[in-house]
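Team,

Forwarding the record for the chain on the shared tracking sheet. I've put the sequence and predicted structure together so nobody has to dig through attachments.
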Amino acid sequence: MNISDLKAARVIAQYRGKYRVKSEHNEFWAEITGKMMFAAGSPTDYPVVGDEVEIYQMSDDQAIIHKILPRKSLLQRKSAGKDELQPIAANIDVAFVVQAVDRDFNLNRFERYLTIINAGKIKPMIILNKIDLVPEEDLAKKVDQIKARFKDVTVETLSAAQSTGIEELKRAIEHGKIYCFVGSSGVGKSSIINKLLGQELLKTKMISASTKKGKHVTTHRELFVLDNGGMVIDNPGIREVGVGDVSGAVDNVFGDISELAKHCKFDDCTHDHEPGCAVRAAVKDGRISKEQYNSFMKLKKEADYYAMSALEKRRKDRSFGRMVKNVIKVKGKKGK
């Protein structure tokens, strides 16, 4: 095989151990090479939906992925119960954070999504779905809460069930750009994408009126191309939005608190117990809500914990490597 035999493609669907890739003219089922699998040190070394890759065509519908091309952005979260990051999608231009305004509305959950989106160098947009299920005054109140907390984030309101706001969202999607939908299960991500596509390609499930709980319907990640050339990615619902080493992103999301922190008495103030803390003073006099402060502190602690765990793991790996070298060295001397 020569380099000239390789062709460019994009990963449009991800399953367990298999991928669907699309080149300029064809689609293929694809797997990665054994060399890629052997060299992979973490989940981020494997292809994800949105990745541009180089493939070798084996047959009319089979291909091998040989290389992942450099990513311009990567959306990832900390895996539940693990100290490693799970990639969600790559090369995203805008991430749509979807909540159902009737049952799922939670400002703290928005902060978690916005933190991992900011860490991935991706532009966020908030979508409130199912606006037909709440009174207009309740919707206006929730929109005001979002705009007060996240001043630089665009908010779109819509009802996928009634197609309200779909055309406005469609106009926001540009040719050649990738848009990723994230949110809990049952908030209507697949329903919105079906409306954007103009056909029922994705399965959806109504929420139980008694439990108000949804079930996972989307079971894999998949990319779809709209008529205008924009691309959208559907994702399974995320139960836990764990954050990794995203301390800088936390500061960006909590801009008001970060500005206040500049006026703390100590440069290394943790905003927990130190005297002269401008952040806690702002909480005390009501400029910052207790809820927002608690959310900020929790995310900072998670990010710091992940960073420390990653550092300790690297130190252990280095120590173990040195120990192995010493053992090999000692055995070598004894064998002489």
